Amino acid sequence: MNTEKLDGILSKYEELTSLISKPEIIADNKEWTKLVKEHSSLEPVVEAYRRLLKIDKELADLKEMASSEEDKELRELAAEEEAEKREEREKTENELKILLLPVDPNDEKNAIIEIRAGAGGDEAALFAAELMRMYKMYAEKKHWRVEDVDINETELGGVKEAVFSLTGDSIFSRLKFESGVHRVQRVPDTESQGRIHTSTVTVAVLPEVEDVVVEINEKDLKIDTYRSGGAGGQHVNKTESAIRITHIPTGIVVQCQDERSQIKNREKAMRVLKSKLYDKMQEDADKEYSAVRRSQVGTGDRSERIRTYNFPQGRVTDHRINLTLYSLENFMNGDLDEMLDALRIADQTAKLEAEID
Predict the structure, then answer these.
(1) How does pLDDT run across 304-342, given as a tens digit for each residue?
(2) Terminus of the chain with fewer CB atoms < 10 Å: N or C?
(3) Do residues 129 and 157 lie in contact, with contact meaning Cβ atoms separated by under 8 Å?
(4) What is the DSSP letter of 264?
(5) Cβ distance 200 to 300 under 8 Å?
(6) Hey, how many other C-beta atoms are within 10 angstroms of the C-beta on 17?
(7) The pTM is what?
(8) Which fold has domain 111-287+303-350?
(9) DSSP code for 160
(10) What is the pLDDT of residues 218-273, one digit of tens each?
């Protein structure tokens, strides 16, 4: 454990504690917000380190008590408590190691979710709609704000493609491992023979980025307008308010028809385009760091099958960490925390092992 680094973090935390209480800093709202955010980010490390220092002091006292030659009972009690404290110390030290791992700079960002029906026709589209509902229910439990960008529905109530944004606290850190192919196994309502069908849906989770991260030249954009409309003519707009934007250098296409205002649809579409361009930049950079990618839970490859939802057996299995939950109904109703927490821990463990290697 690098105590010099931890002492530096503790000093910085104490310095920030003093700064954010000064009237001149409080008066500068932008500076105060920035310092409070930095202070909060250091707090978990400082709390764990202070706990470790307290345990070390207690261990030193117990060691002294255990060496007493006058009181045999005191020696035995001290030895027993020392074993418990050493176990507590190991747990706290592991917690600190995880807290000191490099932080994904995107973790605190909002997210844009893209869901696309894959193999399986109507059944894939129906499951895509259920996954959209699942993520939106999870967002509701977390008190995140959901904003539709583009929903392409089918006649049967399915979704060919859905794009929506989530705004709240550290959303990308919770959902970043959801990118990949989600497979469903069940008997469709239209199946007269009772046979189980397998369909797939692709999910992409993109961090929503600021203008300063991605610069877009207007000359690189081809912007088309068209009339928005849903399945069976619902939500049809008589004006050309829907927007389709093509980024010519990369060929990335985004569209938005959720709003009746062309200006608002353009704003939403641009937000998605920036996130997609940022994601491509990251993907290109990650190719240079393949070893780091392999140490993580998933490669982020959109074609990687990450999870199977088996309805006849009521189970959901994540193939990256070999975790199966027999609570599919609750899972589809937005109870995702157990799975998401397990993925985060597996990722942290893999990174720790990579650091040791």
Answers:
(1) 799 999 999 999 999 999 999 999 999 999 999 999 999
(2) C
(3) yes
(4) H
(5) no
(6) 14
(7) 0.71
(8) Alpha-Beta Plaits (3.30.70)
(9) E
(10) 899 999 888 766 544 444 455 678 889 999 999 999 999 877 788 888 889 988 99
Q: Please give the helix or strand (H or E) that residue 323 lies within, else none.
A: strand 323-325
Please enumerate in sequence order all residues whose Cβ is within 8 A of that of 127, keeping only pairs 6 or more positions apart, or say none: 117, 120, 158, 182, 184, 199, 201, 309
The token pair at 214 is 């991605």
Query: What number of other Cβ atoms are within 10 A of residue 318's Cβ?
Result: 21
Q: What are phi and psi of 193, to 5 degrees?
A: -90, -5
| Cβ–Cβ under 8 Å, residues 331 and 346 | no
Q: Work out the number of other CB atoms within 10 angstroms of the CB of residue 93.
A: 14
| Tally: H helices and E strands in the chain | 10, 11
Q: Provide the token pair at 238.
A: 């008589």
CA distance 182 to 119: 11
Residue 47: C-alpha distances to residues 39, 44, 260 (Å): 12, 5, 50
Residue with tokens 């008190």: 143
Burial class (CB in 10 A: 0-12, 13-18, 19+), 162: buried
Q: How many Å apart are CA 226 and CA 237, to the nearest integer?
A: 9
235: left (phi over 0), alpha (psi -120 to 50) or beta: left
Question: 357 falls in which pLDDT band (50, 70, 90)?
Answer: low
pLDDT, tens only, 172-229: 999 999 999 999 999 987 676 778 999 999 999 999 987 656 778 889 999 988 876 6
Distances (CA, A) of 32 to 28, 94, 129, 212, 337: 6, 32, 43, 21, 32
Which residues share a beta bridge with 150? 163
DSSP 8-state code for residue 308: E
- Whole-angstrom distance, CA of residue 139 vs CA of residue 126: 20
Distance in Å from the first CA to the final CA of the chain: 16
Q: Residues 282-294: what's their mean pLDDT?
A: 56
Q: Which residues touch 304 (CB under 8 Å, ≥6 apart)? A: 180, 181, 298
